[in-house]
């Protein structure tokens, strides 16, 4: 089977030099313009015959070679449309900073060249509308349809115009913006003006010792700059994994099983906490927590606790995707908060936040979304909330973790995209008596005791993800065996169907 670009609500991804090339980036940019940018009703821009877009990349070396594809497309569109497409180039930037820049510079949209957690041989593109939010499913579906319909002409590299130097001081402005947004949110949930500033000030006073693993030394400069904005002393910040991202000492996926070096560094440095990121830094995973699920859950619980004494209760519901832990429901019930389940993909969580007027949303893989900052997963927001929680409560990370209902979530995958029929067949191998089945995203079976199992084709890789979770009632080993047995049955069924 011929390999193709993967296009979904999570963006466009492909193998560099194979499915994703300079020419393809150029073509994607042209399609982005046709499907979205040129349809934006912007009278002022039309009068000026000028349109600004933001462009950024993560630290993968391949990104530098793909940036000119966007620049060339902008030049070609300018000539064809008689309307200058001006590219505001940020250089190395996180996805949250790119989203912020779209709104800060009042641009028509944005492009970040990144494949997030995919391996080094991959790269990709995330596309943003003029609201600073990832393009919606309808638009991405149309872009995917056009990409699959035919391949574009080979773009001659010799005609590529030079791109502008990175925008200066954008990072400092972004950090100030995030801090201010978190402060506003804390004011809202407490119902007390100035409460946010007072809580954030406690971070400086606690003098935290922190370890950072951002996949590379250059990538680490972004979270370190934000920690300094929060008042953390540079001498108290240790950066590990400081080489080039192509020689990262861990998998780019910031899952706990890949973060043993960070765990060890936290112990060796006697640090209070360790922060791990994926290359585009929308996700945040905390060490030494057992699972990435606890990053957004602790952030959400902090907001729930703060508003417990506020009669106006601005935080009434929290959208969370279908693959996140059931500990959300059990935690939220204590505070009278409703959990809204959505399809996987942060844009689905964001749409639910907008629909229900929610100020907070989450994805269990380490995605924290706070509307006062931006509608998108933001690791800087997560760091600010977690450090604020530690400073405000006076507790350690281990103490906060013990207060969360204990569930075990196991994740597996098979190297193929399962069909609706094969997933249904695999699920029927289980005892479904009394279970509820949710088919909004793949197939999820929810049992009466809140344990569940889910199969779904990935939005970002040519694989099928298999998740299973149960509350730890007796001990971890018994729970692990129960979940592992379910996964084996399902994986066996899928593999058999694939090879049939």
Automatic annotation (TrEMBL):
Pfam families: PGM_PMM_I, PGM_PMM_II, PGM_PMM_III, PGM_PMM_IV
InterPro entries with a match to the protein in the record: A-D-PHexomutase_a/b/a-I, A-D-PHexomutase_a/b/a-I/II/III, A-D-PHexomutase_a/b/a-II, A-D-PHexomutase_a/b/a-III, A-D-PHexomutase_C, A-D-PHexomutase_C_sf, A-D-PHexomutase_CS, Alpha-D-phosphohexomutase_SF
Keyword match Acyltransferase: no
Ranges where the Alpha-D-phosphohexomutase C-terminal domain occurs: 433-476
Entry's Gene Ontology BP terms: carbohydrate metabolic process
Gene3D superfamilies, A to Z: Alpha-D-Glucose-1,6-Bisphosphate, subunit A, domain 3, Alpha-D-phosphohexomutase, C-terminal domain
The Alpha-D-phosphohexomutase alpha/beta/alpha domain, residue ranges: 9-149, 201-287, 316-405
GO molecular function, one term: phosphomannomutase activity
Keywords in alphabetical order: Isomerase, Magnesium, Metal-binding, Phosphoprotein
Domain of life: Bacteria
Cofactor annotation: Mg(2+)
Assigned protein family: Belongs to the phosphohexose mutase family.
Annotated protein name in UniProt: Phosphoglucosamine mutase
